[in-house]
Amino acid sequence: MSSKPYHLKDLRRVVTTHNKDGVSVVVRDTPLPASDMSEDSKDVTLWITTDGIPTADNNVDIDGAARLAELDPAMNLALVHPLGRSSVLRSTELCPLGVTSMHRTSSVDYNILIEGELILIMEDGTETHLVNPGDSVVQRGTLHAWRNPRPDRWTRWMSVVLAAHPAKNPRGDAYESQAFDLKTGEPIPIGKAKVAEVKPHL
To answer: Any signal peptide, and if so, which residues (predicted)?
Structure first.
């Protein structure tokens, strides 16, 4: 658990279905508290599908949040496997001045800023500052990291993570899922990717 003061409210998740008469109704309306991912980050999994697109979830009585996605071992997170058929709706929260590892997954990720500020760090060193709720990043299998520039508050963003074939380099070889320490450049052993605190000028 992080020692940083935590101010974000629990996410609320509403799920709809049809009742026995075929009428559209709300079947679940619950808060989903965040869980610790590391000392300096938290996450919430809101829904997971595992049967591909189109999914059969409109006709099964299963809470998607209770499923397990195919694990991406490089990240030690419930992200989709490169050849999987999963999709994941999740929230990620990063502590003040926190930064993730530089990482790549074989997925297409729709990332949407919800609260706070967030900086996208790319492999070439460029940084893109997201400041307004709704600012979005479409991540297409590229190496990247995230940083919270604020010294005084957590940041939260939502991600829809879709299974995808790996991105390929100019020679046509597939990039593998990977992670490494942003400050040292050292590879992070499989299953050890984590968030670290850095100075604001990184």
So the answer is: none
